[in-house]
Design a protein that fits this description.
Length: about 90
């Protein structure tokens, strides 16, 4: 049971928020989780392609011990359908 609890402590955590900046050369991303004003500087895992990550983008990230494991852009809200004309 202790081993099971230990493995849960290091499981990747999903967070939604905004990418503040990307430093591909250093392999880091500054991320601000939703509902906070606290920025997190995350070291990107080798599997993350930072060329596809843009500052200002709203994303869902997977973080494990201050390491960025994955980045997924949030789906944009569907566009509202135009209303059919009313009347004659």
């Amino acid at each position: 049971m202790v081993a099971a609890l230990g493995s849960l402590a290091f499981a990747a955590e999903a967070k939604k928020g905004t990418i503040k900046s990307v430093d591909a050369k250093a392999g880091t991303v500054v991320f601000c989780p939703e509902g906070t004003n606290t920025d997190m500087t995350l070291k990107a895992d080798k599997s993350v392609d930072l060329s596809k990550v843009k500052a200002g983008e709203k994303v869902e990230v997977s973080v494990e011990k201050n390491t960025l494991k994955s980045v997924k852009a949030e789906a944009a809200a569907p566009a509202a359908k135009p209303k059919a004309p009313m009347g004659c």
